[in-house]
Amino acid sequence: MRFIRVLPIVIAFSILFGAAFTGLVIAPGFTSTVARTPSVGLVAYSTTEARGRHIYVREGCVYCHSQQVRNVKADANLAESFGVSKAGDYYYDLPHLLGTSRQGPDLSNEGRVWRREIGQPARDYLIGHFMNPRDYNPNSIMPAFDYLSKQELSDLTDYIQSLGAWKDNVPQPEKT
Amino acid sequence: MTSIKEQTSGIATRMPIISSESLPIDQPDSASRTWLFSGIFWMSVTMLIGLVEAVKLFYPEFLQGVPALAYGRLRPVHTNIGMFGFMSMGYLGATFYMVPRLTQTPLFSERLGSLTAWAWNLNLLAGCMGILLGFSKGKEYTEIPFPFDMAIGLFVIAIAGNLFSTIAQRREQRIYVSLWYILLAIIPFPIYYTLGNASKFSGIEDAVINWFYSHNFFGIWLTALGLATLYYIVPKQVHKPLYSHVISFVGFWTLAAFYPWNGGHHVIWGPVPMWVMTASVTASIAMFIPTFATMVNFGGTAWGTWEIMKRDVGYRFSLLAYLCYVGASLWGTGLAVMSLNAKLHFTNMTIAHVHLGFVGFGVPGLIAFTYFYLERSLKLKYSRSMAEWHFWLTVIGILGYTVSMGISGWMEGTAWEAGGAPQGTMIDRYPYHVARAISGLVILLGQFLFVGNVIQTINYPVPLAETTEEHSANNLQTQNVTTI
């Protein structure tokens, strides 16, 4: 008798919650566009890149830098230069680092700006910029990561240079 | 059906008799007090950290060089303390207060309630230390490292068990709307919490699940507990029943139906299937219905209570929370409109919206409950002048915060659509970032007054002059209850 009035409430919102759970958690796993397949040409992170990614996570870079180019007017420049992000681009990303805020620039194609082929000058720039961003841009509000060790800075640089770099090695037919 | 008189006296007679030997931890409301005061403590901490971050965003050399105080590590501590410390603990304090009264039954275990509160405090402290030392899990709102993240899930199960056992043994058969929200908060939590914190998906699936978890946490945990509290205290503050129980019924069920779908609106225009976006945008826009229901219901209840508004600061805080809840919800609906989202996602507009929810709805709601608790339960008189200062400082702070960040966000979106990049708007954002930090300082000053007021009221008690009207309305809001 006592449960008669509580139970319907619990059952009813459990069904409502279950519907959303099915829609947003279970169903995307079966949808082709989110299928667990990497984009063509996507390269897994190397050991140093993975270590660098871990530093990126640890230092909370994601709170100011997104890794996501959208097909919208506000991202028009990025989309034109680098193409729009696709689900398969994130195949090796755990945890995901899509981001929600852009206090600083989007980094999903940073490896195509400071390409590995540039060699030492690109690395010097990136490491110097981590150490003190205001040496390069006096208006920058990025924290100075001068407390990172040499090895950590090198790993982080490897990771940043890997971002989107694989896209330069595969023909990109559609630039939406 | 019991008469009002019986109900009013019922709670006192049915509470266990307090002998001098019984431990303080077993006394009625000891669990509620522990949770509530912990929540107020963490509220001050998260505001202080927020202020440090706000300063760092225009003066990055501030506290530079200490890894644990770097912006990227403080930010998850700020959000996690805000969610798990201030909001969860504070509103659980209100919940532990409401449940025994709404059910006319003593809490299943005061001891368990207090112990979970202390365990929660220590666990949260350890988890935040973990983040500061560099062990963050990295996804927004799931940063607390293992095993402290899983411990939170276990504690919620203990809390839910405690509350649900009380509800199952209840003497008052009718279920007031606050209890509906509490049930919604405590039952699905372990499912989405575990999913959000323990799942090992990668890439886009990880993102979608991350937002599913986060938005449920905000929607059917924090908001549900917050609304439960407002639904409980507002009718008592104005000494009349809720405007309409039918509208509160509509508001509850539409909220329960649409909120869990909202998660996908964090990845609108992102690399997710179109239908995930469509479903989430639809649900976010449909959130207008529960918002509108709440707006009408509280608006109707508050209508014509100008006299009470003038003399009761606590009630004014309830109204502030209510207005900001409606504002933040409508704002969220607006930001989920695809064209607006394209412009404003990733800008400071999101931050303005979130803070209107937390600082506008969460903070005043808990403050209203605390003043209510001091007056109605402890029957103590708090400093009116300090409370007035606190109120106006909070109002100015909230306005300053949301307006400065809102303008900054709109400006950024406009600049990006004109082909600019975040680096380019750095100088333009500077004055707004300064204004935001000043607003934060104003809010923090108000908070200091509040904490001082609470400590003074409890340590140097001044009994409230007995006004029969205040106390005879113990269970007024259970009148005309919709039962189902």
Explain how this protein is built.
The complex is a heterodimer of chains A (176) and B (484). The mean pLDDT of chain A is 88. Chain A has helices at 3-26, 47-58, 76-82, 110-113, 120-131, 150-162. Chain A has 176 residues and is mainly α. Chain A has six helices and no strands. Chain A has two domains: 1-30; 38-169, Cytochrome c-like domain (Cytochrome Bc1 Complex, Chain D, domain 2, Orthogonal Bundle). The relative contact order of chain A is 0.16. By secondary structure, chain B is mostly helical. Chain B folds into two domains: 25-174, Four Helix Bundle (Hemerythrin (Met), subunit A); 228-474, Cytochrome C Oxidase, Chain A. Chain B contains 18 helices and no strands. In chain B, helix 3 (71-103) packs antiparallel against helix 4 (110-132) and helix 9 packs antiparallel against helix 11 (288-302). Chain B is globular and about 65 Å long. Mean pLDDT of chain B is 89; it is low at 1-16, 468-474 and 480-484. At the A-B interface, helix 1 of A face helix 3, helix 6, helix 7, helix 8 and helix 9 of B.
Structure summarized in a few sentences:
The complex is a heterodimer of chains A (176) and B (484). Chain A is an all-alpha fold.
